[in-house]
């Protein structure tokens, strides 16, 4: 093992990260979800007649820059063919921008690709269909026309709002409002894409009457639903406005915000209303990099928590100015307001953290654990202990909130405890299960376990933690891997679980850990690293990328470090590959989207992934094998 090279890389990354910190203590890195958010914001700017030609032109240029040579757009780089839905969004946005017209080669090639994939009738994504409908290209699907009184009911045959995930709620409510109004907003810039509906119907093939779906699921339904009246639209409007963040965004999501703005127009609000202006201004704050792209949300709290934690593990003392500034930033972002999570945790005071810089209502377990970890950076402290960098009451509130989100099955959700799986047949769209459900996942649960074990000294001797470990063990695949919901995919899940289980006392030679180790070694690349395709997330089995990425190599190495009693040649090859990837690997591999959003819809490149995970892995390696 080349410890000189490892120490050099740790020190160099630490110095670089210190230089990258913002004056307020945060790290502000970008997340790239492809062109989806760019297309939605550009289209909304035109529909609401927001006159900002430099921004509209810049967004159009950014969209064109992601185009494939044959004329399509992809969800992820190794997608065999382009994505119909992504290409449709890009085509519509470029035409509505006014900077591209029919007859331009870029437009003609995009249309040719769409026809080759069966036309717009075959668009599968709920959000892409909504974009086509709100611009008047298509009829609103019958399955979107869910009566609002059913959605706001406390119970009934339909999934009610608060049975769904929070992010599903804020996206579906504006879509259902517009669908029930048959709302379309046309301007002088709006194109006519009717020729791309090859059967001439302007309808989508995956549409089905909601009543027929319900009858199939629940039997004959008589007198189930009543028509919407205006009071229900006002209730829906209040639901949305009550969930606005201080910057005017809806739960910090750019996509939810623009859908909300269009839904408000559908019920009579003027495009010049102050609420609309605040929403546009808030969405502008999600612009990142040069040329600008629209992030789906800012990852600032998550990045700051995890980078401070990584720097602490790399040896930066908690008294260092960098760590103190990060702690101050995170203290100011701790939640003090109740959100929808309190419905299923009514006796829990606020205390979590959200993913984004302005999040005040939608905390998540991953970000809360990341923030708490950032305060526990003194390796010499006796565990368990309360860190000095946060007031004891605030620490207790944060830890209590995280523990209160523990699901009855033993796992942790992303946002709200004890969600129930919903019949996804009601929503026959790409990524439905991921957007509607918020269930326990092995990767997120294992990150919480790793925090509780490594940083707070908890073990499976505590019955409730033993139950969590048993639940995670029950999720192991037959081949020894674990599925990762929030990273791509089995590499992420397996390495994360191995770290989490061993941190709370599961022995490294446990049969499940041994099987996981064998699986990781079986998918190691010839160059020593690891790389997995986003296809794994779509198809729910491991599919190799054919090349190594820094974050996936780091996740796999975490599993090896957790399981091995001493370095092996496979571990050494993996470390060499990681160091090499950080130095000379082609940029496209370092930008591969190893973050998971919604299967078949959203894949995410976190700029921070190539900093957080390699630095943590190298620090763990040094601490275990070279201390």
UniProtKB/TrEMBL annotation:
Record-annotated Squalene cyclase C-terminal domain positions: 300-622
Record-annotated membrane-spanning stretches: none
Name the UniProt record assigns to this protein: Sporulene cyclase
Keywords assigned by UniProt, alphabetized: Repeat
Domain spans labelled Squalene cyclase N-terminal: 10-289
Pfam family, one: SQHop_cyclase_N
This protein's pathway: Secondary metabolite biosynthesis; hopanoid biosynthesis
Entry's family note: Belongs to the terpene cyclase/mutase family.
Keyword Repeat: yes
GO molecular function terms attached to this record: intramolecular transferase activity
SUPFAM superfamilies: Terpenoid cyclases/Protein prenyltransferases
Biological processes, Gene Ontology terms: triterpenoid biosynthetic process
Top-rank lineage group of the source organism: Bacteria
GO cellular component, one term: lipid droplet
């Amino acid at each position: 093992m080349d410890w000189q090279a490892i120490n050099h890389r740790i020190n160099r990354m630490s110095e670089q990260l210190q230089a990258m910190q913002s004056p307020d203590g945060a790290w502000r890195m970008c997340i790239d979800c492809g062109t989806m958010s760019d297309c939605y914001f550009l289209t909304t700017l035109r529909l609401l007649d927001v006159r900002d030609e430099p921004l509209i032109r810049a967004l159009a240029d950014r969209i064109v820059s992601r185009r494939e040579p044959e004329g399509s757009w992809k969800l992820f780089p190794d997608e065999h063919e382009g994505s119909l839905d992504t290409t449709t969004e890009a085509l519509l946005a470029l035409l509505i921008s006014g900077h591209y017209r029919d007859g331009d080669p870029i437009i003609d090639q995009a249309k040719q690709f769409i026809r080759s994939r069966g036309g717009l009738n075959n668009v599968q994504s709920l959000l892409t269909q909504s974009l086509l409908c709100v611009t008047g290209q298509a009829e609103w699907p019958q399955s979107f026309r869910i009566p609002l009184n059913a959605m706001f009911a406390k119970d009934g045959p339909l999934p009610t709002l608060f049975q769904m995930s929070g992010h599903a709620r804020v996206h579906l409510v504006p879509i259902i409002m517009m669908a029930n109004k048959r709302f379309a907003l046309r301007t002088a810039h709006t194109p006519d894409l009717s020729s791309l509906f090859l059967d001439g119907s302007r309808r989508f093939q995956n549409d089905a009457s909601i009543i027929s779906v319900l009858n199939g699921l629940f039997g004959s339904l008589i007198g189930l639903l009543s028509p919407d009246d205006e009071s229900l639209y006002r209730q829906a409007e209040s639901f949305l406005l009550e969930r606005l963040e201080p910057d005017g965004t809806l739960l910090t999501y750019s996509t939810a915000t623009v859908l909300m703005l269009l839904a408000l127009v559908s019920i009579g609000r003027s495009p010049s209303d102050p609420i609309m202006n605040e929403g546009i201004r808030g969405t502008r704050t999600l612009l990142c990099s040069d040329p600008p792209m629209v992030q789906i949300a800012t990852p600032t709290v998550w990045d700051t928590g995890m980078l401070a934690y990584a720097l602490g593990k790399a040896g930066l003392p908690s008294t260092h100015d960098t760590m103190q500034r990060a702690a101050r930033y995170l203290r100011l972002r701790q939640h003090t307001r109740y959100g929808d999570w309190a419905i299923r945790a009514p006796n829990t005071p606020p205390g979590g953290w959200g993913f984004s810089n302005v999040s005040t209502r939608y905390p998540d377990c991953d970000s809360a654990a990341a923030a708490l970890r950032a305060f526990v950076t003194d390796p010499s402290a006796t565990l368990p202990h309360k860190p000095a960098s946060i007031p004891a009451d605030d620490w207790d509130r944060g830890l209590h909130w995280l523990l209160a989100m523990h699901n009855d099955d033993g796992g942790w959700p992303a946002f709200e405890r004890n969600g129930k799986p919903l019949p996804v047949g009601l929503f026959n769209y790409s990524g439905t299960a991921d957007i509607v459900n918020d269930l326990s996942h092995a990767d997120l649960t294992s990150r919480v376990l790793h925090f509780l074990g490594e940083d707070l000294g908890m073990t499976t001797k505590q019955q409730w933690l033993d139950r969590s470990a048993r639940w995670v063990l029950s999720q192991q695949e037959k081949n020894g891997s674990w599925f990762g919901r929030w990273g791509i995919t089995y590499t992420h899940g397996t390495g994360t679980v191995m770290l989490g289980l061993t941190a709370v006392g599961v022995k490294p030679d446990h049969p499940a850990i041994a099987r996981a180790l064998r699986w990781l070694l079986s998918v190691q690349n010839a160059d020593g690293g690891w790389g997995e395709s986003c296809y794994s997330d779509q198809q729910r089995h491991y599919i190799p990328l054919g090349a190594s990425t820094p974050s996936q190599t780091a996740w796999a190495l975490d599993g090896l470090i957790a399981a091995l009693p001493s370095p092996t040649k496979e571990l050494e090859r993996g470390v060499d590959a990681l160091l090499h990837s950080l130095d000379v690997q082609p940029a496209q591999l370092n930008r591969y989207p190893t973050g998971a959003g919604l299967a078949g819809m959203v894949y995410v490149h976190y700029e921070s992934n190539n900093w957080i995970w390699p630095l943590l892995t190298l620090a763990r390696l040094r601490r275990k094998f070279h201390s």
